[in-house]
Amino acid sequence: MRGFWFLATLGLAAAEDGLNAWLRYARLPDEIARQATVPPAIVALNTTESSPVYSAGQELRSGINGILGKKIDVSHEISEGGSVVVGTIAAFNESGISVETPELEEDGFWLSVKNDKVEIVGQNERGALYGAFEYLSMLAQANFTEVAYATNPSAAIRWINQWDNMDGTIERGYAGLSIFFANDTVLSNMTRVAQYARLLASIRVNGIIVNNVNADVTLLSDENMAGLARIADAMRPWGVKVGISLNFASPQTFGGLSTFDPLDDTVIAWWNNITDKLYVQVPDMAGFLIKANSEGQPGPETYNRTLSDGANLFARATKPHGGVVMFRAFVYDYQNLNESNWKDDRANAAVDFFRGLDGKFDDNVIVQIKYGPIDFQVREPASPLFAHLKQTATAIELQITQEYLGQQCHLVYLPPLWKTVLDFDLRVDGEKSVIGTDILSGKRFNKTGLTGYAGVVNVGHNATWLGTHLAMSNLYAYGRIAWDPTVNEVAILEDWTRLTFGLDDTVRETITRMSMESWPAYENYTGNLGIQTLTDITGPHYGPNPQSMDNNPWGQWTRADAFSIGMDRTVSNGTGYSGQYPDEVAAMFEEIETTPDNLLLWFHHVPYTHVLKSGKTVIQHFYDAHYAGAETAASFPEQWSKLRGLIDQQRFDEMLFRLTYQAGHAIVWRDSINEFYNSLSQIGDDHDRVNNHPYRIEAENMTLTNYRVTAVNPFEVASSLRIVQSVGNSSATSASATLNYTAGVYDLAVAYYDLYEGKASYELFLNERSIGKWIGDNEDRLGFTLTRGIDGHSATRITFKGIEIKEGDVVRVDAKANGRETAPLDYIAVLPPGVVD
Ligand code: GCW
Questions:
Q1: Picking from 6-15, 224-233, 616-625, 827-836, which range would have the lowest pLDDT averaged per residue?
Q2: 264 flagged as catalytic
Q3: Which residues contact ligand 1 via a Cβ below 6 A?
Q4: CATH number assigned to the domain with residue range 546-567+605-681, chosen from the 4 options 3.40.190.10, 3.90.226.10, 3.30.450.20, 3.90.1330.10
Q5: Active-site residue, from 59, 134, 345, 403
Q6: Residue 59, CB half-sphere, CA atoms under 13 Å: how many?
Q7: How many angstroms separate the CA atoms of 404 and 416, rounded?
Q8: Catalytic residue list contains 593
Q9: Closest to 545 in 3D by CA, of 557, 553, 554, 536
Q10: Which ligand 1 atom minimizes the distance to the CA of 213?
């Protein structure tokens, strides 16, 4: 009882759905709040309601009220006495307050907190708003120190790319339908859009492309242009400028012209006219994003024009309005890649296409480059294109939506991955050329103004924004890193955790530890040594399917055969990709000896028996890494369970479900990959774990009623190659077995498959005692549909902990099929404490 009251006074009892993310402004405990000195007045030096400074005033009012329980009004004029004043440097000067700030760059701010005097001075309106969020973030974290400092962004472009389609679906979105579009129109209710803009402003994002790069021309209708104006109106008070993706063929497919040749006068006139119309609706539009000649999208090459001709077409249309064009370097010809040609390599494409175009782009074009040369994989070397565009503005494209990284069903904290690229020194012309601080900042090649960051984010209507609470640290971190790529990834997490879950040390330490363990674990159990995520590349990019990683037209290959594996990307014998780097880096990747183990198979084709720098063979590293990764994932639900009662019940329960799911799916990954390469190479595991599961009872070996034994495809997603599926949907479907274990306490895990278009039901019994019931409804609980097949996406398991078992007990699963779901079962594991299998 005492515990309950204690928690209630801390305000932990209230359920939280995640909508407020890191801007909860939760009340600090009284004894802490008492230590804060906050001025008795707020002054926002702008009276226009759509201005960021006005928003800053409102935000300060609600934040201080939430965090400290103090109601302070906002005024717009300076008065006597202490106050929090927020405004642009110009507004400060006009009000007669002299502030001494160091030089501020665009969007930068000065924050001075001194007893009952707080000054938040922006270089512009946006900067002032950012400063207000910074001050509130300090208060929310009970940081009441006096400070006085200026901060400026590392780069001018800090944008978000949404991949929202006009019909309301989202490409690579895992959190429900679009907050922008439905039924080929712009939504009328802009509530979520405004809330999103507020979140983005708090992490200093200043622009957003609202529609998918695979762009739908219907966005250009008069009605939808008016809709864009509504979106821009909702985001403007937060300083977030709106832009759109364009489809290159629009003059023909939408405008009715006979051509979309970028050098054709009628095409140029058509785009100029469309652009002018857009700027009538959205006078401060950020600009355009273009995906051309890639993955089936139209582009200038149709007319034998260069990519720069294509980019400049839009650049010239938007230039008079002050807009910019983000032109994606993700250009490759996916129909003509052929694995039988040893020298074919999609990784070469970006540099091949763009190297000769440096200097040919107009000055308001920014080439937007994915962090690695392939496609947002679990680990890739930095894209060499960053070294080639010396006279062209560039931005890095990071993916916050976890397309190849667990699709928000797995916890994967991404900044450590991003840092491998941002901190990488390309050594252009033998000089320090670190991607984040030297190249993206514009400093290395003296680019002024237009460089920076684009983050692909697929927030949806789900209250958690990204589908799950912990994934939000990635969005938060993105903004922090785009502002300052040197910021420490652990420090970011700690701030985020305090803001999102409160000040408790155990909460902060646990979430930080799990998050920092998560990317290495994911790499371990999905694809290590630079082989990439061994996922289903021809399917949903989620579960394991290593054989799909060869002979596919997408050019994502492993070249695995019975003896060897890896892409030979050397100049001497391979695709020549390593030669795309500046000399020192090229030399490092050219030789096996100097290539780090974690990128070995990216650059070299070696036998499975090749000995790594670690002393292990490649194949044994595979086995061990997959075991280690799954073991770490298995610890997540246990680590999280320590937070019961320390955070609100709703978020605790929702995350516990996901982390438990992840622990099960990590074992699916581990076994699939290990069994696949074990079968291909015929080399055993030194520790005898692969294909040897003494704690499992295979469903096909159980006593079956109305169940039949089947194979699955791919074979390796079933333990011992076989599963059982119900015959019809009788409720008298069951699988049972007599246990032959010494008496003790065990965990019981049931491995099964959860498809969409079906919700089979299951009940597990020990003797006649029901241990638990469940339904195959992950499609609802995970929030999106994965697969209609029995495969690496649907394979999952449920665990019942701490069950007393004695020899001779009978374990039984009763099942009932539903829809396409034939209540498929793979095995039951009876696990002694500490065993992960
Ligand atoms: O990673 C691939 C994705 C596509 C995406 C494409 C791109 C928007 O699988 O869904 O299309 O990259 O970045 O253009």
A1: 6-15
A2: no
A3: 163, 171-172, 212-214, 291, 295, 330, 375-376, 403
A4: 3.90.1330.10
A5: 403
A6: 32
A7: 15
A8: no
A9: 536
A10: 8
Residue 737, SS3?
Answer: strand
Q: Cα separation of 365 and 834, whole Å?
A: 56
CB 730 within 8 A of CB 706: yes
Choosing from 164, 211, 330, 371 the residue with most ligand 1 atoms within 8 A of its CB, the one to mutate for a pocket test is 330
The residue contributing the CA closest to ligand 1 atom 12 is 375
CA 262 to ligand 1 center in whole angstroms: 24
Mean pLDDT in residue range 295-305: 96
Is 295 designated active site?
yes
* Of the candidates 473, 502, 507, 468, the residue with the CA atom closest to the CA atom of residue 490: 473
> Residue 788 carries which side chain, given as an amino acid letter?
R
Could you count the other beta carbons within 10 Å of the beta carbon of residue 201? 26
Catalytic residue, chosen from 375, 380, 671, 809, is 375
Q: Among all chains, which residue has been given the structure tokens 């209630």? A: 8
- State the DSSP string of 537-588: TTTTS-SB-GGGGSS-TT-------SSEES----TTTS-SGGGGS-HHHHHH
CATH (one of 3.40.50.2000, 3.40.140.100, 3.30.379.10, 3.40.190.10) for 2-151:
3.30.379.10
Q: Which atom number of ligand 1 is nearest to the Cα of residue 297?
A: 14
Report the alpha-carbon distance of residue 87 to residue 56 in Å, rounded.
9
Q: Which pLDDT band, with edges at 50, 70 and 90, does 14 fall under?
A: low
Residue 569: what residue type? R
Whether the per-residue pLDDT at 660 is higher than 70: the answer is yes
In 3D space, the residue among 414, 503, 420, 516 whose CA is nearest the CA of residue 466 turns out to be 414
Cα separation values, 111 from 22, 103, 121, 424, Å: 20, 13, 7, 32
The CATH superfamily of 696-831 is: Galactose-binding domain-like (2.60.120.260)
Q: Whose CA is nearest to atom 2 of ligand 1?
A: 375
Q: Is the pLDDT of residue 393 over 60?
A: yes
Q: Calculate what percentage of the chain has a pLDDT beyond 70.
A: 98
CATH assignment, 157-501: 3.20.20.80
Q: Where are the domains of the chain?
A: 2-151, 157-501, 546-567+605-681, 696-831
- Other Cβ atoms less than 10 A from the Cβ of 692: the count is 11
Per the DSSP assignment, residues forming a β-bridge with 119 are 85, 112
Q: Which residues contact 525 (CB under 8 A, 6 or more apart)?
A: 625, 626, 629, 630, 633, 666, 669, 670, 673
